[in-house]
């Protein structure tokens, strides 16, 4: 680790090592100050952790879309946040209708499944159209070209949905069955957070099963390994890529509904932007192209965001610590890029990609 | 040789540009005139945030302006009104760019805007330099009407607003907290916007001046959805009132998550006009009941008629105004159009001259104007230079069940300054 004692001393390594020490010291001192002041009780820490896990599981679902597409096309689909918005924004109208008729509270589980299916289908269609119209004609062009196209597509989708549904804010209706809290040993955790975490976990397990245990999953892995050889083996590459976009889109759409149950407000055409960037960060944190990495990265980011400001920044006496939540998230991204560019679990690189 | 050609070309251009100035022989105004030929429309500018995350504020104001124009059947001085909308975004750069386009258009008589106080800081120097007027319907930052540059003031002549100065609103929140809620400790949250930060600071200072204890001053970021961290921190300081003058949807997230934060069950949530819209109560749900908000006292028959007209004409394709500044925009547009009417001079050939200084003076002279947002009197002394809203049209509202469940708006008024024990003006 500390290379600067040996002959091959370099200022870059030295700076990075100093940076490491400063960061570790900062985190330790900040955490020590906060914990020793006792301002925040153990129960409150657990609450923050639980909220962070739920938020993180939503990041993870979105991050999977980035990672799946990157794994296959080596392309960052920056319009993925808008795919999430498409499902979440469209489904808010379905949710309102279900709430008006009373179905939402009479059959909560069925209604939520219906909403997830609807949002998933909307987002899936948007993702597939995106691939077909914006990305497929550019396949084979330099990597910067689809990247810029993705940014353009992102604006296009935002303003299309603004045109469709207006620029005001909407909110998901509350579900009575998800109100209240589970109390374990004096610590109360809201039911909705438990539900969000479990729902996301189920979806992630389904994805894992799809990729690892089915024929189409095997095809996806083959295409990600080497497109030309996969084509020689008789795999329809275009279909597999489209399927991958569709799966990513479905996950993003369902994340939209789950997010709507967890944080009901703030539904508008712009809502995909920040979750999109956060999920991208999560995907890079975990190791882009790596499916378990995206899941872990999302959870990790959610928890760090929830606990970091109060634990480290407040302890260092930084004013307005909570405003700096995003700073923590993006500092994590920078740190990972400096110290472990391949991400926590490591990018799965075959030789052609590396 | 080439240089001589260049010289001639430049001279030619100079003459071409100078000609109209000589032609304006009828104009006696110190700042020049806007000249409208007999068959030309009257052009009104708008510098609003009509794209990006804050576009619903811009669209809200734009709807108010459009209704004000259609309220006159689209005619002014016997001519059609043309509205030119420039996107001022919600930043100083955006305001600057919009103002440059407005100032470059010689046919524009005056502009409504900007949406955000930050954009006004970019726009004001250009509009003022061009001798034009701008009337904002939603800038509330105190610095904009303060000409003391050492105190951070940025006021320049030609700037007006119908939105109320935060100095009124923040102080009002503090007085209500002390006098009615009998609060001893307050926590404030802003989101980094000059508007919300200004309100939070004024509220905290006034509250401290009334012998209250300011136990927490924090901030969230725009776009945050998870407020659990800051709410946990606030709960640890045990305030009686949490003052959160932030915009929707951050205020919706804060209020709904505070209801589930242990330690904040008894704290009163107080917000300001950044959240003053029917959708705030509906989106926040049950947690919104009991939330106190300061906001414009827009009610009565004139306002109901305005809302009916909105539902009928649907400016921007919406049934109801998306935010809380449409009435201010309606008043601003009417004040501008009235002033244009008052100062217009018609020449023999049907050309109309509108003196730029005369227009500024006419708006400054507005007194007891009966607008949708109450009685408006434009002042010209710092720190209220250009302020047309006097603060008397503000009230404290408390959200009840019908606002949450049936979409009734506005909520019942629980207090206004006339009920204050400290009526010192």
Summarize this structure briefly.
The complex is a heterodimer of chains A (354) and B (425). Chain A is an all-alpha fold.
Key structural traits:
heterodimer, A: 354 residues, mainly alpha, two-stranded antiparallel sheet, 2 strands, disordered C terminus, B: 425 residues, alpha/beta, Rossmann fold, 2 domains, seven-stranded mixed sheet, six-stranded mixed sheet
What this model shows, in words?
The complex is a heterodimer of chains A (354) and B (425). Chain A contains 13 helices and two strands. A two-stranded antiparallel sheet of chain A has the order 1-2. In chain A, helix 7 packs across helix 8 and helix 11 (273-286) packs across helix 12. Chain A is an all-alpha fold. Chain A starts with 10 loop residues before the first helix and ends in a 15-residue tail after the last helix. Chain A is 71% helix and 2% strand. Chain B has two domains: 33-163 and 325-376, Response regulator (Rossmann fold), CATH 3.40.50.2300; 166-295 and 393-419, 3-Layer(aba) Sandwich (Rossmann fold). Helix content of chain B is 39%, strand content 19%. In chain B, helix 3 (92-104) packs parallel to helix 4 (117-129) and helix 5 crosses helix 6 (194-209). Chains A and B meet through helix 2 and helix 12 of A and helix 2, helix 7, helix 8 and helix 9 of B.
